Amino acid sequence: MQRTTRNLPARLHRGRVLSAAVLTASALLLATAPQAAAQDGVWAHYDVTEPKVITLEFDTDLLAFDLCWSDHTDMVKEQIVNGAIAQMNDPTQLHVIRMPGLPPFYRRTSNAPVWHDLTGGVITSSDVLPNRASYHIDVEQALIEIAGRIRAERPGAKLAFEGFELQPLPGRPPAYEELGALQDFYITDRTIYLNHVGHILHHALNSTFYRARVDFAEAQDNWLVFPNQTGQFSLASLDNPAWPPEEIEPEIMALWGGDGDEGGGDGGGGGGGGGGGDPDESVVLVPGDGFAEVWGDGVEAVGSPGMDGYDAKAIARWNVVPYQTVEDEPFSVGVVAFHINNIDRVEFYLEGGPAITVTEMTHNPRTDTWEYWAVIDPMVMLAMNHPDGPIELRAIAYPKDAGEPRVLEPLMLNTNSQQTLPNPVVWCAPWGNDEFGDGSQENPFRQPYRAMKAAAVQHGGIADGVTVFAMPGDYHWGDGSGPPETVSRWATVSGAPGTDPSDVVFTSGSSAGFKTKLLAVSGVSFENTSVTTALGAPRAIWIDNSKGVGPGRDSDFRLYHATHWAGGLFITRSSAERMRDGFVGADLVRASHVEDIGSDAFSGSRLVVSCSVDGIDSSGTNYHPDVYQFAGSSAQENFIVFGLRADNVNAQPIFSDDASRIDDVAFVNVLFARPAGADPIAPAFSQWCTPTNHLLLWKVSLPNSTFVFRSDDMSDISVRGTQFYKIFTSQKAGQGPPVLDDNWFDGNHFVDGYTTGALVLGSNATVGDPLFTDMSAGDFTPLPDSPLRMRLFEALVPIDVNGEERSTPGTVGAIR
User: Fold this and answer.
1) Cβ atoms within 10 Å of 535's Cβ, excluding its own
2) What confidence score (pLDDT) does residue 296 get?
3) Which among 321, 256, 266, 322 is positioned nearest to 26, based on CA atoms?
């Protein structure tokens, strides 16, 4: 993954590499250094011994409570001292004491409903909250005492406490100075950010370096130690306001493997938050002071008029559910983007801060999607004293060579790095009581609506951040009277920790629903009950890790009506079965499954990524089924279907008809398979009937159905690496005869290139039996001697519909 920073703000060092600070190597730190070490005031080389890491873990949900605020603090300190001393075989060696349960900042360490301390006792919120503000000084004072005890037993031992570096952060008391006097070196596992005079501003993500205390008059104690190419180590000063001078900047790059503008590489879902590479190779977004009132104007087209694809706009959408809260872990934000000329880069901006430029699709572990992505780190937000609350992200997707960039709609999230936003938890249960319950786990409410409303009342009438945990049982959806209000964060109804979505079931409901502006549901089921809300003010819903089950595919039951959720409709990791429609009309559908329906699966959803459908059958109904149909009569644009597998679908795979025109559409890594034995040249056909500029059919498989082009107004069409059964043209009433340009097609396969009307178009085309492994059993993997294999010398996308990485020469169709 190549990422660079652009347009750095004044508060960061002018050197681009050190502002992004991708210091990836594992360096060692010196306790002292000889005066002659840095003759030029900048570099020196040393042989040093790697420190011994002593890891101490304790069976507690909140080690800080045991160490600082419990009635057994002395016992815990003694255990830490004894555990460290037991591993100090050579007191003269450098020793790093690592305690994973003791982070440098206060953060919730467990999502369990009950916390337990080292003795097995219960830790309550009242035990923790009064001390949260003093977390830093309390922990550091405890470490000061521990260091003193260790030194008393092991005089001269060289110590460092991992995670507790000497950095005066906003609101952090000065105990770090006293702790620093007892540490012989400092260690961090975070990438550095520098301010305009070269001092450490903050660090983010995982990237190891060591900070030296070197008593040079010109450097004071602010030097970094890097590994160099000789196997020794180099010191670099951070205190010189002019550091580093331009002439040595390339030398710095050589030490850690960059070239002056690039970060590292990420490994790695259309095939499908860490994976495919460690997050230390991602560039973190740095917030600014807010966006200008007019932003994004003047973004010019790439290339020159007349170039292929010059008037085609980048197809790009956020693969992020908005209004989420970034709490205490790094949070990746991604964009799925395509263009007929490919994507050159996606630029990300946070609160008007510097651009982070991403030039490759890689695997985003949070979403399990191959996309363009960057990271928000709450530690950076905290270090820059950014207030908790809403934050705004923006992005621009640029085409390669020629085309029109797309300025994406702003994305709103929240940050809670200072832990000032409430996250109330309230409970409900089948045995609860809406009149006499108090919302505790021991005395829950009966219905989720009542629980959420009570939590909102306790927090000034606002339900932002409220989580209602529902214990196993049946529930009623909504109520509608006096709704719990939300402003900028989700209020969530969730199955209690440890439950399965099938354990928590909504079996009845009110048409008014919750009437809440931002409502999320997670880990629940809906049986013959729709996710409704009253019409009127636009409301948004996020359905995650949940399932809807209807009375049958021939019923008129739908899990929701998209018109109810004009404020936003987001589906992740969920399923819908035995009903009329699947997940239609959504802003985002990711990693979700539709099964045994009678009509449309994903029609009108703007971004469909890593999804599947198994079984569409409209028999016995009047439905006109489609896997994906464009809904509405107005002009529309910017749709992506990336990584969709549709099996056993007696339906039109793709249907565009009603809209006045549809521009900027990408179908990538998509398999549409009719049931075994279906006549591939009989309806239902895919039909493209609409005036269009910029349509991509890349790596699509239509093994046993026909595609008909019917529009006489098409431009910037790209059909590449796609397997058709048959294509032909048909004139639509009111339009002229469609004409397909041979240059639109490249590297495709046509099973039927011989019967009446069949077309074989483009370069590198093949015709005949594709030789699938077992088409009758739904296995469309090409056999080793298939004509689909070893055909394509441009991957187009790095994975196939099953999330498997592609290689080159590549395979035609959705499956590698």
Assistant:
1) 13
2) 79
3) 256
